[in-house]
Amino acid sequence: MNGRWIRFAAIALGVVALGTIAGAHPMTGRNATFVQGIQGPAVAPFMYLGAKHMVTGYDHLLFLVGVIFFLYRLKDVVLYVSLFTLGHSVTLLAGVLGGIRANPYLVDAVIGASVAYKAFENIGGFDRLLGLRPDTRLAVLVFGLFHGFGLATKLQEFTLSSDGLVINIVSFNIGVELGQVLALTLVLILLTSWRARSGFLRHAFVTNTVLMTAGFVLAGYQLAGYVVSRA
Q: CA angle 63-66-67, nearest 5°?
């Protein structure tokens, strides 16, 4: 086994381990205590919690990395991120404020599958193997709906006060967007720097293969959790 494949194996194992750890990122500890104990509007704290949840939500970020991986124009990045934002904002607000519920394990399994889907598309899997060219914009919007439900299920674990609930959940959603912008800005800086190097396209396939592996691990981890919870 040459050095390249040793590095690839090490990266793959690291991402798989990260994926397993990131399989669940609930609000616990002081954050959980705060969310359940708050009475009335708390704009700044909920914005902070939303931003923190997005920045530490590796499943959401891995999907977004896949989405923007081959987007070179800023207007394209804005378009796709806006579609994702629209999707997850709708279901986050509908889930918490509208009381629409879904099994958190199954939702998170779809979120993991979304990571694998986008990475598979990035390596040309649909076109080469299936002769298909999915509508990427529609896929990002639809998966955004599931990512929003994933955020909603974390808040639905708590009994939230109705006093200031709308303002607090909207603030949480705004915080999610701010965290998303911060994370994506860093990702874009790193991608732009990487793209300037001659080896970018040569390593893009391996990178997306690792990304796809992480997505499958995330999905499998959540499906296993679902089976155990039902048993």
A: 90
Neighbours of 141 (CB within 10 A): 19
Sequence-separated (6 or more) residues with CB below 8 Å from residue 119: 66, 208, 209, 211, 212, 215
197-to-55, 139, 188, 190, 211 alpha-carbon distances in Å:
27, 30, 15, 11, 20
Q: What is the pLDDT of residues 151-174, one digit of tens each?
A: 888 888 777 778 888 998 999 999
Number of domains in the chain: 1
- Counting every residue, how long is the chain? 231
Q: Give the rounded percent of residues in the chain with a pLDDT score beyond 90.
A: 43
Cα–Cα distance, 213 to 219 (Å, whole number)? 10
Strands (E), 143-195: none
**Domain enclosing residue 68, as ranges:** 3-230
- For the question of whether the overall pTM of this predicted structure is more than 0.85, the answer is no
